[in-house]
Amino acid sequence: MEERKIILKTGWNFNNSYANLPELFFERQSLTHVDSPKLIILNDHLTAYLGLNVQALQSSDGVAVLAGNQMPKGALPLSQAYAGHQFGHFTMLGDGRALLLGEQITPKDERVDIQLKGSGRTPYSRGGDGRATLGSMLREYIISEAMYALGIPTTRSLAVVTTGEPVFRETKLPGAVLTRVAASHLRVGTFQYAAEWGTVEELRALADYALKRHFSDGDGAENRYLCLLQEVIKRQAALIAKWQLVGFIHGVMNTDNVSISGETIDYGPCAFMDNYDPATVFSSIDRQGRYAYGNQPYIAGWNLARFAETLLPLLHDNKEKATQLAENAIAEFTQLYHSNWLSGMRTKLGIFNEEPEDEILIENLLNMMQKYDADYTNTFRALTFDKFSDMTLFDTESFTIWHKKWQERLYRQEESKDCSIELMKSSNPEIIPRNHRVEEALYAAEKNGDYSVMKKLLDVLSNPYAHSNEQAGYTALPEKSTCPYRTFCGT
Ligand code: AMP
Ligand code: MG
């Protein structure tokens, strides 16, 4: 009996540092009960990292926690306040359908937020029902875990449970709760909220908290708040470059969806690009293409400028000097982004050293890909394995000329061809969560209660650089369709 108890200890190890911030930043919450929670998927690897016990989480008590029906020991549920620019318009937001249970201190002594998404109404819900649909939560689970496996900083998904309650969208859909794990949920929008509605001291408390939680307290920096700004800029530059390099389109890069920790957050209308085209947009509400693939680096710069504005009172007592410091920091972003992107592109082409002409070589390839409607991921896969079939691009004279130049470039470096191939294999994924494959998995899950398609997909996505035979079956493109793929927000 005693032993059984030990085995079933879940391992929650909460601390609640966010709740020590001024009250302006959150509302304490009680749990909203749901009818009949059922565990749909649990992330075994993440469970281990968090120091949690799989069997305990699978038990009825464990599932009750994941559904928001039961409070785990040490949790202090709250919803966080934040604001944000949504498609350029500033507005008050906050966790309208999420609950921060607390921060789990992992066995490696790391601190991560445990948040329930779809957990019910909060004071920030506005007109919303506080709920989420099974399809959209599974979609976030699949894509966030795929991003993690691709080596891209991201929030992660611990579990999805269904609530047994319907959610009303255009039709009646099953409701679900996702357990999201994040380095933190501090957003540019949290700072905008503080700057707009808080005192300078409340803003300072938030900045100090962010510095302590993510940036070693700004140790050694002459101006800690400038250090905060510079570090956030650096992380966003690295993050957005990684998105571009795999063809990820976030879809709703509002300032409330920009994480201070530098993780990808809020998987709403996101999707991966098939054929290379900078104008690619999937989101049904992004009619102007504000968040198109090719625009993402510019929008990131715009969002960071909004972040810099919030810090002005902390950067310097003199307003002009503060503005100058902020402008100088923001001016760095473009260059930082570009050098991250360029070095990433070099690795995708198996290039180890730097030559000034590299950028032209890369641009020429991208231009050809656009001209001949070439699939982004599969082009780099073909270059990696020297297998050129199935694409118009490869039959063109311009590609033949480009290929020769690329080969000459590789011969000019010290590293062998084999080293180049290895570098390309680890830089060019065999598989990305292609839209039609994600839809196929969600359809089986939602319509037929069949989760095997999704589990198989998650399995092949979990090691995208393995280049296994099993994965090769997932590289096929969707049938040409007359209506473009569309994604939807906040469902
Ligand atoms: P998002 O588009 O997911 O970044 O969400 C934007 C804002 O809308 C956030 O404040 C969310 O909490 C809120 N929101 C999204 N869906 C709902 C919902 N079903 N009920 C209440 N609030 C929601
Ligand atoms: Mg959001």
UniProtKB/TrEMBL annotation:
What chemistry does it catalyse, as a reaction equation? L-tyrosyl-[protein] + UTP = O-(5'-uridylyl)-L-tyrosyl-[protein] + diphosphate; L-tyrosyl-[protein] + ATP = O-(5'-adenylyl)-L-tyrosyl-[protein] + diphosphate; L-histidyl-[protein] + UTP = N(tele)-(5'-uridylyl)-L-histidyl-[protein] + diphosphate; L-seryl-[protein] + ATP = 3-O-(5'-adenylyl)-L-seryl-[protein] + diphosphate
For the ligand (ATP), the binding residues are G94, G96, R97, K117, D129, G130, R180, R187, D266
Q: Where is the active site?
A: D256
Q: Where does Mg(2+) bind?
A: N257, D266
The cofactor named in the record is: Mg(2+); Mn(2+)
Q: Which InterPro entries match?
A: SelO
Supply the EC number(s): 2.7.7.-, 2.7.7.108
Q: Which UniProt keywords apply?
A: ATP-binding, Magnesium, Manganese, Metal-binding, Nucleotide-binding, Nucleotidyltransferase, Transferase
List the Pfam families hit by this protein, alphabetically: SelO
Recorded family membership: Belongs to the SELO family.
Record-linked HAMAP family: SelO (MF_00692)
Q: What does this protein do?
A: Nucleotidyltransferase involved in the post-translational modification of proteins. It can catalyze the addition of adenosine monophosphate (AMP) or uridine monophosphate (UMP) to a protein, resulting in modifications known as AMPylation and UMPylation.
Protein name from the UniProt record: Protein nucleotidyltransferase YdiU
Q: Which species is this UniProt entry from?
A: Clostridium gelidum
Name the encoding gene, please.
ydiU
